[in-house]
Amino acid sequence: MIERLAFLAGAARGLLNPEPAEREPDADDGVDPRRRDLPRDPRAELIVALLLIGAGLAGAGFAVALALDADTQVLGGLLGGALALMSAALILAGKRVVPQEVEVEERVPMVDREAERAVADDVTRARDGVSRRKLLAGAAGVAGVGLAAAAALPAASLGPGAGTLERSPWRRGIRLVTSDGKPLKATDIPLGGFDTAYPEGADPRELGSPVVVVHIAEGLRAFSKICTHAGCAVSLFRYPVSEETSSGPALVCPCHYSTFDVRHGGEPIFGPAVRALPTLPIAAADNGELRATGGLSASVGPSWWRVRRT
Amino acid sequence: MRRALLVLAAACGLMATVSAAAGGQQSAKPAANPAALANRGRTLFAQGCASCHGTDLRGRKGLGPSLRGAGAAAADFYLSTGRMPIDNPTDEPERTDPAYPRADIDALVAYVGSFGGPAIPRVDAARGDVGRGREQFTERCAGCHQVLARGGIVTGGSVPALDKSTATQIGEAVRVGPYLMPKFSAAQLDPHRLADLAAYVNYAKHPDDRGGWAICHIGPIPEGMVAWLLAGLVLLGVARLIGERAPR
After folding, report:
1. In terms of domains, do B83 and B150 share one?
2. Total domain count for chain B?
């Protein structure tokens, strides 16, 4: 015999439609969870409501903590706590608050309008066991709002706005400084060495700021440190002791191993990047300090789906 | 999958034992007679190194680079870490047991060093500051070596773990830039910062794992995968617990 079982969670519709109705006493044995008749259980409802409100508060707390730049442990605890409270509420509601109904639809007419309507009726009426509908609905609302805030806010940290990709603080004459603010000198970087530099006086966290300066046989070369594939920091520089028996000098991004040829204008030679690293023209002053002699050769940052090639 | 996990577990165990065994370190002692030592090094070099690096360290095309100017630091690094000699010149030199006893290494180091180049740096890890070392390490080294110095890869080569590196070898690698590694000048990493760096690398051999379970320090992404797997099991358990079986 082919049966189609419909497990009905009538909470949502029952909550929205609070007219009282009778229920057929079909539960002969309390063992079958499909035919469970739940008596009113205000205590369980209260606990569910409290759990939902807790989930909402934890979700909102996550949003606040994110805005306040709190510790990652705090963020994880709040978001995980919100989801755990939410699931605890749902489990308890499923076991103690929401009545269960079973309807059997005959197989032959695949869609039986009558049976459908009957099921829908049951769904609408299946709320005898629930007394504090408004409380539960309100608590569910709190949980929804809190979790929605927790889900929406991290989108703000998904990267820079499209406009900031075009901006770069590099201009002719700006000095290169190291991460501790000291001017970078040409003699600081030995042949086969590299260093990270920032434009003096500009925000080092701006995407267009960090450059990596490498010293190869042809001289010093400066490239944007932001990978043209996904915007990671290109922090790997390989420089062979003996190029005859190993690979040539290159900058490598640690995220997806895009590899850029430092001898040929930062052209990608391996990996998913399709666009050369933007180059920065630099020159050493008489005292050895490095200065930019122009801006970056191209806009900084990732190119999606091979759309932006320059 | 299971085999991969087993291999991973075995590798972790092996790494732990080896790093525990490699606690001691030897430092280069000044030789009694530098000229005699270099002379003996010359004989050893002709026997063991000249086939690739050429007579008088001039190098041979396609086999081995010239070692003039490589310095005592490079010679000591490659020989004391067992990276040289290698069988195939196109292989990446990898850390293994040294092929020469310490006395022979000293002789070879004296011979190669007599052609100029960086001397073996003195690195006093005991005076280094772990916190500052961590800053330097994350800024300059962790891109390749991973933040707890477990190594990784770069296109064209593999990056060694530093769990067996001595303070001296760390200093040598920083100045020499072995294989594909870049080198760092004293302006970038002065002796104090080098000591900090070595102190951090020593710390990273046995970090105090505040998070609790270290999972072999294999990095945040594989550690996250382990968390996912475990969470999946927990979820299955919870589903089993809250589910009810309908009677037939």
Report:
1. no
2. 2
A59 contact partners, CB below 8 Å, separation of at least 6: A78, A79, A82, A143, A145, A146, A147, A148, A149, A150
- B99: which residues sit within 8 A by CB, 6+ positions away? B48, B79, B82, B84, B85
Residue B14 lies in a domain: no
Pair B111, B76: CB distance under 8 Å:
no
Partner residue opposite B184 with nearest CB, options A31, A193, A238: A193
Positions in chain B short of pLDDT 50: 1-2, 5, 12-29, 31
pTM over the 0.80 mark: no
Polymer length of chain A:
310
Name the DSSP class of B138.
I
Contacts of B178 in chain A (CB under 8 A): 241
Q: Which of A17-26, A231-240, B81-90 has the lowest mean pLDDT?
A: A17-26
Please give the Cα distance from B134 to A51 (Å, whole number): 42
Quote ipTM for the complex. 0.77
B212 & B174 share domain: yes
Contacts of B182 in chain A (CB under 8 A): 192-194, 214, 237-239
- The DSSP-derived string for B160-182 is PP-TT--HHHHHHHHHH--TT--
pLDDT value for A159: 59
Give residue B28's pLDDT.
45
Same domain, residue pair B211 and B158: yes
